[in-house]
Amino acid sequence: MQKLICPIQHYLWGKEGDSSLVSQLKKAVNDQYENNLPFAELWMGTHPNGPARLHPHGQLLTDYLANNSLFLGKHEKGGLEFLFKVLSVGKPLSIQAHPTKEQAIVLHRIKPNEYPDDNHKPEMAIALTDFELLCGFKLAEDIKTTLFRLPELLEALDVVQVNSIGKFENPDVDPLKKVFCAVLEGHSTTMPAIIRRICDRLNGEEVASLTDTEKLILRLDKLYPGDVGVLIGATFLNHFTLKQGESVFLGPNVPHAYLDGDCIECMACSDNTIRAGLTPKYKDIETLKANLHYDMTGPIKFAPEDKKDHILYKPRVKEFAVIKYDKNAKVLNNVGAASILVVIGGSATIMGSTEVTLSRGEVLLAPATESSPKITDISDDFLCYRAYKPGNEN
Question: Which superkingdom (predicted)?
Fold first, then answer.
């Protein structure tokens, strides 16, 4: 077993200083670092945009695995197929979706600067604190109710199409797609002025009279004035909060944006993002329009499996699964694959081929060959998450 040194991503949306869980974890293992930056993401894996290294000598994890194949399971393809993260979100990320494997290959070929990987990016978020997000399309009646409360926007749309949302199943004539795309297409022309008119009206009303959606419009516009994401996020997408331990799974082409809070995130090893709004970065409107899933489901949470001494988050993807351990853990169960563990709180000792004591902020690489080592000396506040590639569990 090997402890890892893992890099931080200082994206502008991250929480700053000690308010960031990512910063707290970093500080727990190394107090010699800049504290006046946003601490957005802790990356644990081998992606070239943020590769982990072995502690203490700094060898790249990628190189170590290439030269130590016994660390990997029989079903692993020469390296880690997942990217494991801790996120601390201080202000909204972009509204985005991720391509399928086939779409990623094409996008990487034609726009390599915007899509650096030829891989898809299914991902899972597990809340560590209250975690606020936008995810998937609202139910049809909720979308229509919101639109009819925004006359400034409604006058720019086809009211017949708005009334027809939810009444057609043919994707070629889906009214939701037509209305949503009409808003997107005005991102640099009509929508900024419409957003300004809406916000001017809402700011003149009593706060107590505003709906949650109207309050969200004002909140997002303060951060991204006139951005089309203000409308598509608040008007069309489900807005909800995960409690600690709750999770969502985001398959290809599902629109989403994280708004606030801390989470564990695991995904296929990719950094591909199709952005639509709430960002100054490149918005690939045409790609998003063509590929988005327009299913109106309402909020959908992912249900993990309670395994008595651990909780298993195992979506229907081949690249990753996540295990949660707390003070009730007895063993590091045999998953038959290389795995990465991150300690969020407390401490414990793993009695494997080598004895390793882990405390808050530490990250460990465990080999596929470890056969259910015991976990001892567990503190009452112990909390640990583990990512691995499923398919070879014992």
Answer: Eukaryota
Which candidate in 201, 275, 316, 360 is catalytic? 275
Of the candidates 206, 308, 315, 199, the one whose C-alpha atom is nearest the C-alpha of residue 265 is: 315
For the CA atoms of 277, 282, 285, 290, the dihedral, rounded to the nearest 10 degrees, stands at: -110
Is this model's pTM higher than 0.85 or not? yes
DSSP assignment string, 158-193: -HHHHHTTTS---GGG-HHHHHHHHHHHTTTTTHHH
**Cis, peptide link before residue 56, omega less than 30° from 0:** yes
| Nearest-angstrom CA–CA distance, 55 and 47 | 18
199 versus 289: which is more confidently predicted?
199
Task: Give the domains, in start order, of the chain with CATH numbers.
Answer: 2-135+241-279 (2.60.120.10), 141-236 (1.10.441.10), 321-388 (2.60.120.10)
Alpha carbon distance 368, 76 (integer Å)? 10
Residue with tokens 């070239």: 48
Q: 222-278, pLDDT tens digit by residue? A: 999 999 999 999 999 999 999 999 999 999 999 999 999 999 999 998 877 888 999
